[in-house]
Amino acid sequence: MAARLLGLCTRRLLAAAATRGHPASRVRWESSSSRAVIAPSAVVGKRAPEPTVRWQEDPDVEDENLYEKNPDSHGYDSDPLVDMWNMRVVFFFGFSIVLVLGSTFVAYLPDYRMQEWARREAERLVKYREANGLPIMESNCFDPSKIQLPEDED
């Protein structure tokens, strides 16, 4: 694709130089993709034929400048009234709905990884142990008298 565009640009430059009366400069161009070589004629006395350029009209009409018709254009439509309403709708949904309701939704999400619950549970256990005269923390996670260990077989 790039080689084709480069070849097209080269032909246009050569055609422009030939139509202005300037002799085409000696250029050698190698394509990296197709290994094609474009070079001027190898014969010294022979002049290279002028390239024939066939111009094709662009089927698409040029894009009109919306700012000439509507200097306050927001780029949504060529009609100024439709353009203004499209801008209002986009900004209403973009800011009011997404940002306001989205941030409200995130603010009221449930407790992430139950961190708040773990803190409340720890405070409840501390109050219970202080009220019953137990140590706040114990070295044993489980009551050692309730653990049954297998007997040693020697």
Keywords:
mainly alpha, 2 strands, two-stranded antiparallel sheet, 154 residues
List the helices and strands and how they pair.
Layout: H1 2-19, E1 29-30, E2 37-38, H2 66-69, H3 80-107, H4 115-132
Antiparallel strand pairs: 1-2
Largest sheet: 2 strands, antiparallel
Total helical elements? 4
Terminal CA distance reads 84 Å
Shape: elongated
How many β-strand stretches? 2
Explained architecture:
The chain is mostly helical and 154 residues long. Helix content is 44%, strand content 3%. The chain has a two-stranded antiparallel sheet with strand order 1-2.
Give me a quick take on this structure.
By secondary structure, this protein is an all-alpha fold. It is built from 4 helices and 2 strands.
